[in-house]
Amino acid sequence: MADTLDPDGSTTFEAEIDALLEVERFEPSEEFRRAASTTDESVYEEAERDWQGYWARRARELHWHEPFQTVLDDANPPFYRWFTDGRINVSYNCVDRHVEAGDGERVAYHWVGEEGESRTITYADLHRDVQRFANVLKGLGVGTGDVVGIFLPMIPEVVVAMLACARIGATHNVVFGGFAPSSVAERMEVSDAKVLVTVDGARRKGRTAPVKAAVDEVIDRAPSVQHVLVVRNAGVDCPMAQGRDLFYDEVAGTVEAECPAEPLDPETPLFILYSSGSTAKPKGILHTSGGYLTGVAATTKDVFDLKPETDVYWCTADVGWVTGHSYIVYGPLANGATSVMFEGAPDYPHKGIWWELVERFGVTIFYTAPTAIRACIKWGPEHPAKHDLSSLRLLGSVGEPINPKAWVWYYKVIGGERCPVVDTWWQTETGAVMISPLPGVTAAKPGSATRPIPGISAKLVDPDTGQEVLEGEGLLAIDRPWPSMLRTLYQDDERYVSTYWSRFGPRTYVAGDGARRDADGYFTIIGRIDDVINVSGHRLSTAEVESAIVAHDEVAEAAVVPEPHDLTGQAIVAFVTLTGQRQGDDALAVELREFVGARIGKLARPGRVVFTDDLPKTRSGKIMRRLLRDLAEGRELGDVTTLRDPSVVDDLRARVAAQKASS
Ligand code: WTA
């Protein structure tokens, strides 16, 4: 693409991007439609006519050890249950089924490590490894209903460990590898995890960091953990506590090779995934087996137009987030897909590594996040231009709103104006994609996730009147149950009801996002309406970050708000008042950032710290975050008359301006 630079320095490239920005609708190309599985708009209507029948049909595409008769049990909303009288095993569906169909030699993952080394893992390999891993867990006393913590980098063993849990009815609780050990301990403690699976050490951009030793320092806080199972990964020495800690490879040699998949109640909890909410305490989002697998299997097939025999699919997420659970592990495997799994960062060892891998494996479907696309824009089109990307036929986006400029850049530079872009809206809670184009059917509009997929019904509700908004802005709500919905918050039914189902009653799920709907019924997601900040597509709770900051000895009080950021979408700004022992200077700002990083994880570090003598508060003492947000975003301030001391705002405005000027 660099060759489109005009000699006089002006760029035709920029002009082409601008021209694409003028295009309102992108219809799927004829070439794409010719090969697509679904091209007929009637799929929406058909599903709508009998949505329970539709989901039953989709569920029956899976293997059931015993068929179900009941589709939906909605006797006790919002505690919905699906396919209750059937019996199913998720790991059987993801592995055994394909081996038994004669596809054991098909590649499940082309795995590529940080330093370029690769491993090819077939379905037969997974079948062998998962059974052994399951027997190891059983040997440690893990059974149906027990929770297994998984704190692993992007290595094939993470998939094996998850499927091993699914095989024996245990519930996995995966913690993203970028979280701090204390977050891991907290998540183990609140989920009563019996076993924690981790590694000796992990690699990142050419460096190796100890993991097991770091976990050791905090794991005592989770007394439920009886065993730590260590997968050897980076060749790092680690202390092993006698009786508690075991190396996976040593135990694996002592257990039986075979472990048949157990037919399980479809409502058996499959996993807990902790996500940020409005309070400092993370929410343990609980998913179960039959419904979840139905949702992720169907959407992987439809939204990505996946053809397992010919496609090479790559989702660049980390397995530690829901996108990894649903679209690296369960969705692709349930379909018998061949995926790329990449351990490393997008700019290591060089900024074109993703595109090198697309070319090397002939990737046809590529799914990533807007924050990554924006980073690629910054690095420049010359990196993808060095590689042959002509194998690509579909692109996807997830995790945060994609700005139209990033959309058209992705469409043009990566997709060669050939590939439909599916902007997929969903959440940890929804388990699977909810709003997205069907690539062979739905015309895309850059920035809009378009329409709810077949079988899903979404609407906008006016926050004040509770009336449905057909055109305009409102709260995004899902007005009937769907198979892959969360079932509850782990051991907290009350919070489940109050967070999602109290505003408009137990039949309307309130997603926590604001959105716009246009005359075509297309949804454009605006962003969170609660105290959740989305940094690079990762959810962080303001309360969680604030409580980490105030744990520092020098800090009296803290309030954090999001500000817009070119690369990460949003960044965290922290307003901090001090106890008075030390000056609020750059050194302390750096110290606070690292302090938060060590307590929660690097992602949660504030981009900016603004020290202040006071925070704007109402007369009843509540911090007015709305004002701080206006200040951070440089907007006109709204009503300040309810402030206890309006002069605080002038002082803050001056400080924010001074900081912006100096940065
Ligand atoms: C945001 C990630 C706009 C949204 C799968 C949602 C999006 C939150 C999109 C869930 C999208 C996700 N367009 N916003 N295509 N996808 N979001 O639980 O605010 O990590 O509520 O799940 O991300 O984040 P979560």
Question: What would you note in describing this structure?
Answer:
- There is one protein chain.
- The protein has 21 helices and 29 strands.
- With 663 residues, it is α/β, with parallel strands linked by helices.
- It folds into 3 domains: 2-55 and 289-528, ANL, N-terminal domain (Rossmann fold, 3-Layer(aba) Sandwich), CATH 3.40.50; 89-103 and 121-262, 3-Layer(aba) Sandwich (Rossmann fold); 533-662, 2-Layer Sandwich (GMP Synthetase, Chain A, domain 3).
- Strands 11-10-7-5-6-12-13-22 form an 8-stranded mixed sheet, sandwiched between helices. It has a 7-stranded mixed sheet with strand order 4-3-15-14-16-17-18, with helices on both faces. A 5-stranded antiparallel sheet has the order 20-19-21-23-24, with no helix packed on it.
- The model is unreliable at 1-10 (pLDDT under 50).
- 5'-O-[(S)-ethoxy(hydroxy)phosphoryl]adenosine (WTA) binds next to helix 12, strand 18, strand 23 and strand 24.
Task: Please tag this protein with its features.
GMP Synthetase, Chain A, domain 3, 8-stranded mixed β-sheet, single chain, Rossmann fold, 7-stranded mixed β-sheet, 663 residues, disordered N terminus, alpha/beta, binds 5'-O-[(S)-ethoxy(hydroxy)phosphoryl]adenosine
